[in-house]
Amino acid sequence: MTQERRREPRVPYIAEATVGDKWISSFAFVEDISTGGVRIRVPEYIPLSSKVCLKMNLSKKRTLEVWLKPAWIHELVPEGIFEIGARFVELTDEDRRTLVHLKHETLTLVYQ
Fold it and tell me: How far is CA 95 from each of CA 13, 26, 29, 30, 74, rounded to the nearest angstrom?
């Protein structure tokens, strides 16, 4: 059994997003999120050594745009998509507050 290395527990959070860099972006599907990282599914392989930007609309007025560094990647066969666990890097204080608020909102909905 693998030891849990995550500092912050993730909560289920389903959302559409984009992931990429300044040259290319791709559709992404967010599966869960914490203040430390996120699990996403993407149609293309993203190398562990890369740093990519995740953009997702939280509401009509709020967008979260944060940088990620993949920690692990699994190819899901036969779907031909990749599941990635990534940690947030270079978070601003505002990004961190947004993530804390999002996590608490999600936990409230899940456990009502």
Answer: 16, 22, 19, 17, 27
